[in-house]
Write a structure and sequence with these properties.
Chains A, B: This is Aldehyde dehydrogenase (NADP(+)). Chains A, B: InterPro entries: Ald_DH/histidinol_DH, Ald_DH_C, Ald_DH_N, Aldehyde_DH_dom, Aldehyde_DH_Superfamily. Chains A, B: One of its GO terms (molecular function) is oxidoreductase activity, acting on the aldehyde or oxo group of donors, NAD or NADP as acceptor. Chains A, B: Pfam families: Aldedh. 2 copies of one chain form a homodimer. Chain A is α/β, with parallel strands linked by helices. The first copy, chain A, has 2 domains: 123 residues, Aldehyde Dehydrogenase, Chain A, domain 1; 179 residues, Aldehyde Dehydrogenase, Chain A, domain 2. Chain A is 34% helix and 18% strand. Chain A contains 10 helices and 15 strands. In chain A, the strands form 3 sheets. In chain A, strands 9-11-12-7-6-13-14 form a 7-stranded mixed sheet, sandwiched between helices. In chain A, strands 3-2-1-4-5 form a 5-stranded parallel sheet, with helices on both faces. Chains A and B meet through helix 4, helix 10, strand 14 and strand 15 of A and helix 4, helix 10, strand 14 and strand 15 of B.
Chain lengths: 372, 372
């Protein structure tokens, strides 16, 4: 049936009009009604025209793709409420995602809502890795944190490290890199305003400012920032674990291995978590993995980049509140599963079966037969 | 995480304490808290003891399975509300299923609710099949309708046939079989009461009584009943398409092929649909399949029985209101997917990976590598 797809603010191509949600919904045989994000009306229009042209060229029915645009909530609400809509995808704020999710539940017929909403993507530096590579890890972390002016689902926002050898080098590398970063244009004035508010919240929740980037020159420029807090304070103040959408990060200094584990257990659902470790860190890592496996969709070892290669193994999802449905991914080959449901054909004459299921397998597809 | 599983009233084994929901949740590594159905406290207790014994014998943690019991809604509500519960399964009435579903949506953290609620499992007799096999089809339909005193998810409740050759034979065979059927004990006094109310609703919605079975001798005996209605009336009165849980059926007499298609399009989501057809019926069947594929989880050709063999191809689900989530089945090998979510491991040293993912595949499992 028809799917309502909400384009994201931050990736005008990959998560927008012609993005993975649209592609996987169309591939599943669904009709797409796309709500364009107001942050990039021009890019949206160009993509929509290209898709409409492709629909025409390939002889598909004209209504298979359409795009709607406009500010405010009225359009989105009308889409989610419409009885013909069979599923909703959304990428954006927790507030926005939960509003759509709750609204969809008011329908007489419930439908799935796949909202990708919030994640601080915690990074853990294990003691041996900190001792050996504190500075390069801090440097690489901030580099990744600044990508897209910090406006990415997978931005690493929180770094957890045990106080000890290498900690000063880590902190110094991070401070240096943050303070050298130029202020850069953020996506919209609204997102810029929310970022400033997020920075204020950090301070009032008890984190201390370690470094700031160059002064902003334009009104919507995002100035990067690094905060620091002790593990004990972090555990006591849930506000510190909330996402700040923009070029800021929080360094959490924990007392010992036990506090590191406590901090790991304190996180809500995340899209990803990253570990920096050496061979000697394996025993502690084995204790750290179970809480992380329960709380994240992806765990990365000894890397900074989060390339979202679209393959069978890609997982871009995670436990609530990272997403509203952790069993599915919005990126990767299996994202199509959000829009499929099984139909069983029993006792059918071969001529009535859909071609992929016929005895001779006329389309030559790889098939699962008796579970093999 | 822990799953709340609600046992069904009608299958004290397959859908109850040790049923498929419990088995697939345990297989997925989840803890099960089972709410036993009040219809069979004894059978529930025997099964629970056997499971607890098995848990002990196999050295699993003691809390991996527990059972709660009691009438009223308080226990069920407490289970669905509990923040540790990660999913809910339910088999029963639409009212009960939707109450749990709506309640789960009030939680701060949304969780999936798999409720299998209602289905009239329509049967369509195509003209040539009716002309050739009207009587045996009617006979076989009623035989199946009476199984378990009509208290089955897959009970065929509505039969649609075009007026013409074979219709009188079909109607006669059904009447004869229904009137010969003895009244048999229903599951609970409550279900019996709801059945009687359902029969009254049929009549007041405009269906006429064609035949009734033998008089009931005990208070909770279900007396079988056959109703009939013209296609036009059926299309005008949605109440006639509602499930009556018990040994009754409705014969819908349609004017022509077009009205047969209209009736097919009028149905809400169903667990199954059945077609009786001959070679000459293929052209009409091809027109009938698309609306049925959209509305059902399973389509059966030229059969009466609905064996629920537990295999990879089993689908026991269907579009709302048959279930709250048509992408999943509650019976079959894939029912485990309701309780699984993906976790991606990126850049891991082999020693840290779970055994099934290690380089040498030490457990020797069949695996999907690069989509192959």
């Amino acid at each position: 049936g028809p799917m309502a797809i909400f384009g994201a603010s931050n990736f005008p191509i990959a998560y927008s009009v012609a993005g993975g949600d649209t592609a996987s919904a169309l591939a599943a045989g669904s009709t797409v009604i796309l709500k364009a994000h107001n942050a990039h009306p021009g890019a949206s229009e160009i993509q929509a025209r290209a898709i409409r042209q492709a629909v025409q060229d390939s002889g598909l029915p004209e209504g298979v793709f359409s795009m709607v645009r406009g500010s405010g909530n009225a359009i989105g609400e009308a889409l989610v409420d419409h009885p013909l809509i069979k599923a909703v995808t959304f990428t954006g704020s927790e507030q926005g995602g939960m509003a759509l999710y709750r609204r969809a539940q008011q329908r007489p017929e419930p439908i799935p809502v796949f909202a990708e909403m919030t994640s601080v993507n915690p990074t853990f530096i294990l003691p041996r890795a900190l001792a050996e590579r504190g500075a390069p890890i801090g440097d690489g972390f901030v580099e990744r944190m600044l990508v897209n002016v910090g406006q990415a689902c997978l931005k690493p926002a929180i770094l957890v490290a045990v106080e000890g050898t290498g900690f000063a080098a880590l902190r110094h590398a991070m401070s240096k890199r943050v303070s050298e970063a130029p202020a850069r244009t953020m996506l919209t004035p609204g997102i810029h305003g929310a970022y400033l508010k997020g920075l204020c919240n950090m301070e009032s929740a008890g984190a201390s400012l370690v470094a700031v980037g160059a002064t902003a020159t334009a009104e919507v420029d995002g100035r990067s920032a690094l905060f620091e807090v002790e593990g004990e304070r972090f555990l006591a103040e849930p506000l510190l674990a909330q996402e700040v959408f923009g070029p800021s990060a929080l360094l959490v200094k924990v007392r010992d291995e036990e506090e590191l584990l406590q901090v790991a257990r304190s996180f809500k659902g995340q899209l990803s978590a990253t570990l920096h470790l050496e061979q000697d860190d394996l025993p502690l890592t084995r204790r750290l993995l179970p809480p992380l496996e329960r709380r994240t969709g992806r765990i990365v070892v000894n890397a900074f980049a989060h390339p979202q290669e679209v393959c069978f193994a890609t997982v871009h999802g995670g436990p609530f509140p990272a997403t509203t449905d952790s069993r599915f991914t919005s990126v990767g080959m299996t994202s199509i599963e959000r829009f499929l449901r099984p139909v069983a054909y029993q006792g059918f004459p071969d001529a009535l079966l859909p071609e992929p299921l016929r005895e001779g397998n006329p389309l030559g597809l790889p098939r699962l037969v008796d579970g093999q």
